[in-house]
Amino acid sequence: MKRFVIAGCGARGIFAYAVPIIKKYRDEVLLCGVYDTNKKRATLVSKYTSEDIPVFDSFEKMLEEANPDTVIVTTVDRYHDKYVVAALNAGCDVIVEKPLTTTFKKSLAILEAQRASGKKVAVTFNLRFHDFFIKLKEVVSEGAVGEIYSIHYEWRVDRNHGSSYFRRWHSERENSGSLLVHKSTHHFDIANWILGQDPVSVNAFGTRRYFGKGNGEYEGERCLTCKYKDKCEYYYEMTPTEKELYLECEDEDGYLRDRCIYSDKVDIEDNVSVSVLYSKGAVMSYTFNANSPYEGMRMVINGSKGMIEADNVKKMIRIIDNYGKETLVDLTKKAETGHGNADSEILHNLIFGKENDSLSQMADIRAGMMSIGIGMAANISMKEKRRVMLDEYYKDI
After folding, report:
1. How many CA atoms lie within 13 A of 384 on its CB side?
2. Contact (Cβ atoms closer than 8 angstroms) between residue 56 and residue 45
3. Strand 306-311's sheet: what is its strand order?
4. Are the CB atoms for 204 and 274 separated by under 8 Å?
5. What average pLDDT does the segment 87-100 reach?
6. Which of 72, 130, 189, 348 is most buried, by the most CB atoms less than 10 A from its CB?
7. CA 138-139-145 angle, 5° bins
8. With 0-12 CB in 10 A as exposed, 13-18 as middle and 19+ as buried, what is 149?
9. Quick one: angle between helices 365-384 and 184-195, nearest 10?
10. Is the distance from CB of 133 to CB of 181 less than 8 angstroms?
């Protein structure tokens, strides 16, 4: 039986990992320990799994006493490297939530630790397991557009989803590396995966026009105690589960789950534009908007044989050859669970391994580094107002 532990006991750690491991894989996996800097929150794992899961006071102690085979890391992004490196040094395989980490220096430290340990790091890119993106990958891999010349790529997050990032720890660059690292790592990974190429250079522009200090009519510390709660369209009331996980655990660490989206602590962009040159000559233009009227992705892939238009809102993938002939790809919709069925499938494969991975859906440390590499280079590009070459930071990977 495989022995797993979890570092990070927020909603993701509990409901994407702890609960399904106990409910679906109890005969194959023993969840033998959990750790969180907020011990009160860590104790709630036992409540939600209905099992008596050991809670440890320190991560190092958990590694020593629980003797895990695999460590799952679902902490705040800025701390991923700390736990991943320690787990590798202890001889454990690691499953780490995206993004791999938040800086080039930290990602290189993880790579060095993996090489020294001989263990594996898997990054959880669940978009690779969405039926829509699987089909898009298949169509491109089959040569529908021939050699790829360019990609026009838009990703819109609606105001409800977008605002959720700006009331949480993600809105502070030190914690998340910005949404270009925390959120767009998904999007960049899909582009890298579909292209089968590495990003070479990045140029980017970004603004904060909607969220943060000075951008709202009503500003306060948090929604719970805000005097504008009856007026502000972004008033947010925590769910019962969020209250238990966060509000009732505030006395341990002071973390506010419902902080005002117009806080002066917000220091990340909400609208960005990124240009990427790839290793085989393809170019990509990418835009991200965190306050859109609706949510979804649109991608146009141009190549030597024609183009592909893909829109996951319209549930449409259309191939148009050089002579104007159109072919609609069959996208029979399946019943969906978490993240479009992806959460359950990726966890199954992380536990048992993927027997036939012809599409390379299981993302390794290199894929994790390349996806965040675009976001981190974009941050540098915006700050220093220049084109950034990835080999300034990544060599021999």
Report:
1. 12
2. no
3. 326-328, 316-321, 306-311, 296-303, 148-158, 283-292, 271-278, 199-207, 388-389
4. yes
5. 98
6. 72
7. 140
8. middle
9. 120
10. no
List all residues 6 or more positions away from 269 whose beta carbon is below 8 Å from its beta carbon.
Answer: 178, 179, 180, 206, 207, 208, 382
Instruction: Tell me how far apart the alpha carbons of residues 357 and 255 are, in angstroms, rounded to a whole number.
Output: 40
Q: What is the phi/psi pair of residue 37, to 5°?
A: -60, -25
Sign of the CA dihedral with 243 first, then 345, 336, and 139 last: positive
pLDDT classification of 341: cutoffs 50, 70, 90: low
Q: Residue 152, SS3?
A: strand
Q: Which whole number is the average pLDDT over 124-129?
A: 94
- pLDDT tens track for 218-261: 999 999 999 999 999 999 999 999 999 999 999 999 999 999 99
Q: What is the distance between the alpha carbons of residues 41 and 343, in angstroms, rounded to a whole number?
A: 22
Percent of the chain with pLDDT over 90: 94
- pLDDT classification of 340: cutoffs 50, 70, 90: low
- Ranges of beta strands (E only) in the chain are 2-7, 29-35, 70-73, 93-97, 121-124, 148-158, 199-207, 271-278, 283-292, 296-303, 306-311, 316-321, 326-328, 363-364, 388-389
Residue 331: partners with Cβ closer than 8 Å, 6 or more residues away: 131, 132, 135, 315, 316, 317
Helix/strand/coil for 26: coil
Instruction: Give CA–CA dist 333/243, Å, rounded.
Output: 35
Q: Which residue has the tokens 């024609």?
A: 306
Report whether pLDDT(116) > 90. Answer: yes
Q: How far is CA 357 from the centre of its chain?
A: 21
pLDDT of the residue at 2: 96
Provide the token pair at 300. Answer: 């146009």
Query: Which residue shows structure tokens 């700006």?
Result: 166
Q: How many CA atoms lie within 13 A of 271 on its CB side?
A: 8
221 token code pair: 């510390």
d(CA 56, CA 75): 15
For residue 99, give the nearest of 12, 206, 208 by alpha carbon. 12
Q: Residue 72 pairs with which residues in a beta bridge?
A: 6, 95
Q: How far apart are CA 340 and CA 230, in angstroms?
A: 34
